[in-house]
Amino acid sequence: MSRILIALHGHLIKRSVLNAVFDYCRKMKFEVSVLLVDGDSAPSPALADFLGQLKQAGLSGRLFRQAGSLGQAVLKFARRHKDISLILVDSMKNWGAGVPLNALSPPVGLFSGVVAT
Q1: Nearest-CA neighbor of 51 among 93, 22, 24, 94?
Q2: Helix, strand, coil shares of the chain as percentages rounded to 5?
Q3: With bands split at pLDDT 50, 70 and 90, how would you rate the model's confidence at 11?
Q4: Is CB count within 10 Å lower at the N or C end of the chain?
Q5: Which residue, 49, 73, 61, is CA-closest to 24?
Q6: Residues 25 and 88: beta-carbon distance below 8 Å
Q7: What is the DSSP string of 73-106?
Q8: What is the CATH number of domain 3-112?
Q9: Burial letters for 43-55: b for 16+ Cβ neighbours within 10 Å, e otherwise?
Q10: DSSP characters for 13-31?
Q11: Where are the domains of the chain?
């Protein structure tokens, strides 16, 4: 089974993005992993609702937490989970220096700018 990774430096994400991801995962039967970087508080209500929606639809959705820069956290996560097809990140400004995008192997789709404004 393939996986979508939503990587956030904080908890804000557009509800429209979550709705689109939910619809896509339901159609494709993808697993969803949400990676919160440097976040020790509870997920936002939108994110909590999204994870509940996945569960109700019989889809796998899990929340992970990790410290460090967004890029380092994504790279570490991707090395452990080789089934990632798509990565959504909140913003490339949070990616961090020293983590080249081509370090993600195999190549995956990477989309930025999914935070709520």
Answers
A1: 22
A2: 35, 25, 40
A3: low
A4: C
A5: 61
A6: no
A7: HHHHHHHH-TTEEEEEES-GGGS-TT--GGGSSS
A8: 3.40.50.620
A9: bbebbeebbebbe
A10: --HHHHHHHHHHHHHHT-E
A11: 3-112
Helix (H, G, I), strand (E, B) or coil at 55: helix
The Cα–Cα gap between 113 and 106 comes to: 22
Q: Could you give the 3-state DSSP secondary structure of residue 33? A: strand
2, 83 Cβ separation under 8 angstroms: yes
- Do 52 and 13 touch, CB atoms closer than 8 A? no
Grouping H, G, I as helix, E, B as strand and the rest as coil, residue 114 is: coil
CB atoms within 10 A of CB 108: 17
Is there a contact between 68 and 38 (Cβ–Cβ < 8 Å)?
yes
